[in-house]
Amino acid sequence: MSVLNKHQKLALISIIVRKGFAEKVISQVQAAGGLFGIIVKARGSMRQGKKGWFKPLSISPEMESMLILTTKETAENVLQKSILVTEINKRAIGAVKSIPLSKAWTTEYLSTNHKEFEVVEKSAQVKPQVNLSLITCVCQRGKADEIAAAAVREGAAAPIIHFGEGKGVRDRMGLLKIAVNPEKEIIDVVVDEMECDRIFNVMVEAGRLFAPGMGFIYTTKVPTGFINLHTTVSSSHTEATTEQIVKAIDELKESKSWRMADIGLASVRQFKRKQKSDLINLKLITRRGLGDEFINTAMHTGAHGATRVYGNLIGGEKLKSITGRMINDEREVIDFHVTPEVVDDLFMAFDKILTVHESKNSFVLEIPVPRAVTYFG
Fold first, then answer.
1. Residue 183: predicted pLDDT
2. Whose C-alpha in 133, 197, 300, 351 is 20 to 30 A from the C-alpha of 118?
3. Does the pTM of the predicted model rise above 0.90?
């Protein structure tokens, strides 16, 4: 008997705030309709060194990254509440964005029917940014700042970096795998959709992500969000890119109809490295300690690799103390990138493992990946 319940009406909201703000955000987001989520530690990226050279911060600003699962009905309300409570629309550093889900499965049945929640009044709502893209890069530990600096030089907002573990190409390299560290850094960069290809290509070149064992980079569409991750690093090119100028004109004219075909996009370099399109990111959230079994099973089933980070589950009254503070419930967040035809087999394999271990509050989320580059052999 399957323990995973399929949901078509769930949505995913990503929130990034400075350390110390997460608990306040969580309580407000739950009241606005948030159901469950994960909180993971992260850090900021860089500042400008002398004579325009890029170098890491001597003390990187600590950040907290949250993934909040909610219903499609309350997703916009949760996003608006997140923007207001974090104050990233005013002065605070952070980001709030929606992540599209194709499907979602949970070990508990989550009601997606209407329920009472605190509604953000229209007068208080903030106009979100639209047509964004998230670039996620998994690279060897110690390489993230170099790749992040390349993205910033091309006009990207300051990237956010997580620490994690990787399995995949390294495990198939025999004795050569000793040259590849399993510890990884995971870079998240949110950019305008028009600038995505150019910044993506620059990050691939900076990290040599087409070479064996160097890493993996992919994109995710972000329909709406609000990003305030300014960096003190300035571009070494022009003050504004062609794509930024085109976007500014769009906003002034409140339309894209003024554009002629391909105008302003000639500067986007065409990338000829081998790449994949239309992949699926299966994001598994489960109890800490079960990850190795899932990863080994997935790689035997058809997944080429996996990336894992650790965090704490948030949500539900039983996860709070009598003072309202969160109680740690450690989780593993594992990302598998696979072709669509492998998804059903992986789902059945995951379901069997969760049945055996009776793991509660576990989730499998299906997220479309329009573009990815790595060493594909």
1. 85
2. 133
3. no
